[in-house]
Amino acid sequence: MTDTKKSIHGQWSSRLAFILAATGSAVGLGNIWKFPYIAGENGGGAFVIIYLLCVLLIGVPIMMAETMFGRRTRQNPINTMKTLSEEAGADKNWHYLGWMGVIAGFLILSYYSVIAGWASAYVLKAFTGSFFDADASEIQELFDGLIASPVQLIFWHSLFIVATMSIVARGINTGIEKAVRFLMPSLFVMLILLVAYAMTTGSYDQGIEFLFMPDFSKLTGDSVLTAMGHAFFTLSIGMGAIMVYGSYLPKDISISKTVFLIAGTDTAVALLAGMAIFPIVFASGLEPAAGPGLIFQTLPIAFGNMTGGWLFGVLFFVMLVFAALSSSISLIEPAVAWLVENKDMDRKQACIWSGWITWLLGLGTVFSFNVWSGFRLFDRTIFELLDYLTANLLLPIGGFCIAVFAGWIMKQQHSEKELDMPNPLGYQAWKILISYVAPAAVFLVFLHVVGVL
Ligand code: TRP
Questions:
Q1: Which atom of ligand 1 lies at the shortest distance from residue 104's CA?
Q2: Which of 102, 160, 234, 387 to mutate for ligand 1's pocket (most ligand atoms within 8 Å of CB)?
Q3: pTM attached to this predicted model
Q4: What is the pLDDT of residues 256-299, one digit of tens each?
Q5: All domains in the chain, ordered by first residue
Q6: Residue 19: its pLDDT value, please?
């Protein structure tokens, strides 16, 4: 702990530690649970291409900006925006951006935790042999049974919140670094093995075609927004999570290289998940547009019918829960860092408060799958509404503001110094993307969705 800032502000022990933690934040349910089902709902290939473009042209430059903001000030996102706007002589209202991020973090974690709860429930199901020899309809019943039960969902949701908060309470070096170091590589290997299994289903080509052959006629304005929103969600950007991780980053590390590595790994995991899941979908006569239950209705079929499937199934869901944990801690870290730095709470107290709030909010999602499933606001259940509000609106709006600040408000010599790219062309490219391309793209997609374009 070389830093002089108070209490929480430790530092990652190395570049690798930051890479692992930020990759841990990026890789999560978004890659393995969400990406396949939204790709399925939005027709596959064309959606995937838009998503990849958004990651490269909008996501990567914004991720670099966020990391740089945090590292420059070494404070939580709210104070970061305050300090940076003072430094640039800009309006101090910019710190509301930090606030928006804290709120988005609570809202996302509230439903993230419920879905991570499903994954935890599946660890137990896999362990007790529930998938053994099961066909698609039995697996479907298993899933329907789980989400119909508020008691079970609340149990797993509570467990996940407690687990998240106990890791966060320990601080960055001990809790987060250790967990991720071993789990990330293992998850990667398991996904590759699952893709190998998918090759034996007889529907591999069909799955791959669905995922990679673009049919732009299937693309609607809302699918473009969903693809863009997902680029933010999957990279954990637009709400300060990466900013707060950047604030623990030692000064001598290259932000650009690190960000490319993280974004590349994140994308690879999502594509591998898709390549494992869609062949199983087609081989079992399932619907690609089955919605949020997609992986829970497909992968167990594979585990139930392959050799070694019992062990493999248990391990897979354990990994998924850990991938979710290393993401969820970054969702709540901005709020916790703020409570500690500005409200003089100790870390533990801050975690207890944040945990309760998230837990309560999460009940909305729990009930949206059963007792309140008929309730619709703007044509959406509570879960769908939270997902849309955060991933499709708050994160892109947050990202837009971050891009504008980095491109237009922050002094050029400051961003140049922080990014410190070996090749001057690299900085120029970043500057164009962050000042023009990223903000314009977000703006145009929004205009398109509200029907102006
Ligand atoms: N990126 C994670 C995933 O793909 C979710 C996540 C963690 C996140 N931290 C975030 C999303 C911050 C948005 C903002 O599962």
A1: 14
A2: 234
A3: 0.94
A4: 999 999 999 999 999 999 999 999 999 988 899 999 999 999 99
A5: 15-449 (1.20.1740)
A6: 85
Distance between the two ends of the chain, CA-based, in angstroms?
A: 51
Residues within a 6 A CB radius of ligand 1: 25-26, 28-31, 108, 233-234, 236, 239, 241, 327, 330-331, 395
Question: 285 φ, ψ to 5°?
Answer: 65, 30
Residue 4 C-alpha to ligand 1 middle, in angstroms? 29
**Nearest atom of ligand 1 to the alpha carbon of 391:** 13
Place of tokens 């925006």: 81
CB atoms within 10 A of CB 416: 15
Spatial CA neighbour of 109 closest among 170, 37, 25, 179: 25
The rounded mean pLDDT for the chain is 92
Q: Ligand 1, atom 10: nearest CA belongs to which residue?
A: 236
pLDDT, tens only, 133-151 = 999 999 999 999 999 999 9
In angstroms, rounded to a whole number, what is the distance separating the alpha carbons of residues 379 and 361?
A: 20
DSSP H or E run through 61: helix 60-73
- Helices (H), ranges, 344-381: 347-368
Is pLDDT above 60 for 159?
A: yes
* Closest-lying ligand 1 atom to the alpha carbon of residue 331: 9
Which ligand 1 atom minimizes the distance to the CA of 33?
15
